[in-house]
Amino acid sequence: MKLFLDWSSYENAGMGDAYADIPKHGADYAKAVAVCIGSKQCEQIGKGVMCPSYRISGNPVLSPGGRVKLLKSALNADDEQAFLNPSPALEEAMALCVSCKGCRRECENEVDMALIKAEFLTQQVAQHGLSLRRRLWGELPKILCWPIVRPLLLVRNRLGWVARLMEAGLGISAKVRLPLPVRQPFRYGSTAKDAVSVGPVDKQVVLFVDTFNHYFNPAAAEAAQTLLKAGGYQVYIARPLADDEPQRPLCCGRTYFSNGRLDKARHEAQRLLKALEVHVKAGRSIVGLEPSCILSLRDEYLKLGLGEPAKKLAEKVVLLEEFIVREQAAKRWTLAFQALPEVSRLLLHGHCHQKAVGAIKSVRKLLKQVPGLDFELIESSCCGMAGNFGVEAEHVEHAQAMAELALFPALRAEPDALLVSNGFSCQQQIQNGGFSEPLHLSQVLCMALPSQE
User: What is the CATH topology of the domain spanning 192-329?
Assistant: First the structure.
């Protein structure tokens, strides 16, 4: 079997482990599957993320352990085509994995089902071709550049028959409102300011504005820029190179990665690596806003065969909250936050990937520094949107059930609370549930900056 991701880190996985039962097909990919020891930790109900599809169904087959059993069976079959032409049970089990990375963090053996699914999807696309809907999801970073996108989405959201037609043709649920790009995307500003380095490198930072914040929530990026400047940092904006689609924002490639287009994901990664090369060499930190994008740079890029540049980038990339807390610990961030007199209560929903890397601790630490702020972290699993999962006709009911596990009940209980959520998908799921628009942490902290008067 030709593998599309680099699984060499699992080369020695399962050696001497009587429970590993490594399948005969799949090489190191099979070893990554076999790290599961069947403890059924993924079938626990309670706090944490793992596993959303199991939680809403109670079906062990829809847990990471259940998926492992089905994958092992396919990879152990005499005919290798059993994996390339999976059973309906395996297809459904993998389709209902939302790639939350809960298992990567909460499983004793760190089963990485999100990464396993990425290889599985790419194998299916290579064997059976690409559906129009998957092509559409993957190409979103390029499609969003088209001026006609906003008018088309406005029509689709306003006219039920258009939404129903879209559902019939593409399988995009008519029950869900699709997000609209703002009229004015994020503006990079003058390039002249980025030409000359000022001050020590540890007071210089690069802000990476991902595709979705660029087109849908530039206010979060603008707030982050203001916040970092107020902290005394020279802020560079990561931008495309002049000879590489300069009108299209840099993108991590996750939409391709999660839809079985690893070739395209690798191209986007190389484009980003080239644009950030000068900053990485200079030793600047790369700060991002969207958890799934930043985790791509730190995790998935290391599996794409991109070599040393990807490793060096992974060492420099942090989420905004991680950066500020790190700088505070190093005594380089001395700016104190002020009270938010008009905010009496704040609810925080963490993106699954924030939880996977432990970044929620940094968010909570920062919110605690806002005087008098009464806030609470909602103990929830995945919101259910999970990229394009929550707008697909066959998955929309599953997505709603995931949101109803804890997130939506918590929001209904406190309708007047200010909502904070850093994930673009999470923000859309919350708004589609009829709740007020959540703010990004950058916006809240920007509101808490000391008065300039």
Answer: Glutathione S-transferase Yfyf (Class Pi); Chain A, domain 2 (1.20.1050)
